[in-house]
User: Which sequence fits this backbone?
């Protein structure tokens, strides 16, 4: 009988994770530690063989070329130097030397997130707000949907403004409608999507457990 050990191990680890339903226990922590250890080992291998070694080989190739490209050589050398400085984080006394590359990474990451939020989220949202909405039935419902999208976007943006609303009834109404209606509707829809995705994954893992048990049992004569 050929056993699919990958499927069996995955099913066992799934059962370990599901034991958290009865409370925190050793089996759940064991599955979490295995996940963290495997993820850390995979990330380490990827960084060494797909990032670090190619950069070192690139630096050696650039330095040994008859006419070296000084720009690429400087950029590669600076990257390797900053990466080496991160190793000082392992020493409590020399950890401050690693603050420079960490600050660089945080700055670049924040800039990328901000740029992605503006270009990938805020910009398309502004364009989608101004674009005509469409409904499956068409007709007057299109104009109504477009009006709801525009009003909802404006009210939600105004409800997060930093101003005093204690004496302004209109702004109080904007806060109530924006935060307690439009934001709650958006969060409810997001939660429903997350729940549907989680339920799909749960059913998939339960079927994996059933499939592992079925394949592990000897065939019925």
Assistant:
């Amino acid at each position: 009988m050929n056993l699919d050990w990958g499927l069996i191990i995955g099913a066992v680890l799934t059962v370990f994770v599901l034991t958290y339903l009865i409370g925190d226990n050793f089996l759940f922590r064991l599955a979490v530690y295995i996940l963290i250890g495997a993820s850390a080992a995979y990330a380490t291998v990827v960084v060494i063989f797909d990032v670090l070694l190619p950069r070192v080989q690139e630096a050696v190739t650039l330095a040994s070329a008859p006419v070296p490209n000084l720009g690429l050589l400087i950029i590669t050398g600076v990257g390797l130097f900053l990466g080496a400085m991160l190793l000082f984080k392992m020493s409590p006394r020399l950890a401050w030397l690693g603050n420079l590359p960490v600050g660089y990474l945080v700055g670049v990451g924040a800039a990328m997130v901000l740029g992605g939020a503006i270009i990938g989220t805020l910009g398309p949202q502004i364009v989608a707000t101004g674009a005509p909405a469409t409904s499956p039935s068409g007709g007057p419902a299109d104009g109504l949907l477009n009006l709801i999208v525009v009003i909802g976007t404006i009210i939600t943006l105004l409800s997060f403004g930093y101003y005093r609303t204690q004496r302004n009834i209109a702004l109080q109404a904007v806060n109530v409608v924006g935060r307690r209606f439009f934001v709650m509707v958006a969060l409810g829809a997001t939660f429903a999507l997350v729940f549907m995705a989680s339920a799909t994954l749960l059913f998939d893992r339960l079927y994996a457990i059933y499939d592992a048990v079925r394949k592990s049992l000897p065939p019925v004569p």
In short: Residues 137-213 form one domain.
